[in-house]
Write a structure and sequence with these properties.
It is found in: Cell membrane. The chain has eleven helices and ten strands. It has a single domain, classed as P-loop containing nucleotide triphosphate hydrolases (Rossmann fold), CATH 3.40.50. By secondary structure, the chain is an alpha/beta fold. It binds adenosine-5'-diphosphate (ADP) and magnesium ion (MG).
Length: about 270
């Protein structure tokens, strides 16, 4: 679905050239749920912007469903296939009513009103916001706003959803709402998801975790494979999910905690039977 081949990205900072992405290669399959981790400045947002041609490669190549992002003729098609959600919900919402917000994209591509209406219905249902369709977005919580932003993208029927720290400004409740929504879109609608976050717990349900450092892939694998490398993650200035950390400490105390324990529920169950 997404193919990154030896990508380099340079930003100009005065006289200086900053290499934000340094020869990164990565493939993401249709329907995959990939979580991207990495400390500040590791190049996550730069990579995200390459997925829908907001940025173009300085060197190397990116294709979306076989379409080269550097080819201007593909731009419209790529933008339609890859939807982006950013950190600040307030910067993404432009309309005064929720349903107008979701209608914006479909109207822009000239769909007839009946189809627009259908898409609003469908998109708001998918994010669980149908009952708020006549609300003013500024009256919603952060989590609800992000769900509306996601609905606005879903209404365009993309194949890929790229989310750049969509939960960073939300409270725990809002984070849960957004994560549940994204997981559902992946599992039920088969949407390919690239989710960038600094909350380790959000990586637990991913098909694959990709850890970035200095514009390269430092580690990748199933969540368990990545999170069990506690020392390596520390070197990369990253935490591990709470329960992985607890299991690590308990093992140091001599308890034989099974390796697959990553969530509170799993830990609870194991302890109850211990
Ligand atoms: P992350 O999202 O992982 O925090 P970014 O992709 O935002 O990382 O940034 C990667 C590197 O590129 C950092 O060193 C950052 O300072 C630099 N950078 C990002 N955006 C710009 C820009 N517009 N101009 C110059 N340098 C930038
Ligand atoms: Mg970023």
């Amino acid at each position: 679905m997404l193919k990154v081949e030896s990508l380099w990205h340079y930003y100009s900072r005065g006289e200086e050239q900053v290499a934000a992405i340094q020869g990164l290669s990565l493939g993401i399959s249709p329907g995959e749920f990939v979580v991207v981790l990495g400390h500040n400045g590791s190049g996550k947002s730069t990579l995200a912007k390459h997925f829908n041609a907001l940025l173009l490669p300085s060197k190397g190549k990116i294709t979306v469903n076989g379409l080269d992002t550097a080819d201007e003729e593909n731009l419209w098609n790529i933008r339609q296939q890859v939807g982006m959600v950013f950190q600040n919900p307030d910067n993404q919402l432009v309309a005064t009513v929720v349903e107008e917000e979701v209608a914006f994209g479909p109207e822009n591509i000239g769909l007839p009103p009946t189809q627009i209406y259908q898409r609003i219905d469908e998109a708001l249902s998918m994010v669980g916001m149908n009952e708020y369709r006549n609300y003013a977005p500024h009256l919603l919580s952060g989590g609800q706003k992000q769900r509306v932003a996601i609905a606005g993208i879903i209404a365009m029927r993309p194949k890929v959803l790229v989310l750049d720290e969509p939960t960073a400004m939300l409270d725990p409740q809002g984070r849960r709402e957004v994560m549940d929504t994204v997981l559902k879109l992946n599992q039920q609608e088969g949407l390919t998801v690239v989710h960038i976050t600094h909350f380790m717990e959000e990586a637990l349900h991913a098909d694959r975790v990709v850890v970035m450092e200095q514009g390269r892939v430092a580690m990748q694998g199933k969540p368990m494979e990545v999170f069990l490398q506690v020392e390596r993650l520390k070197e990369l200035s990253l935490d591990v999910p709470q329960m992985v950390h607890l299991a690590h400490l308990l093992r140091q105390e001599g308890l034989e905690v099974p390796q697959q324990i990553m969530t509170v529920e799993q830990m609870e169950q194991w302890l109850v039977n211990y």
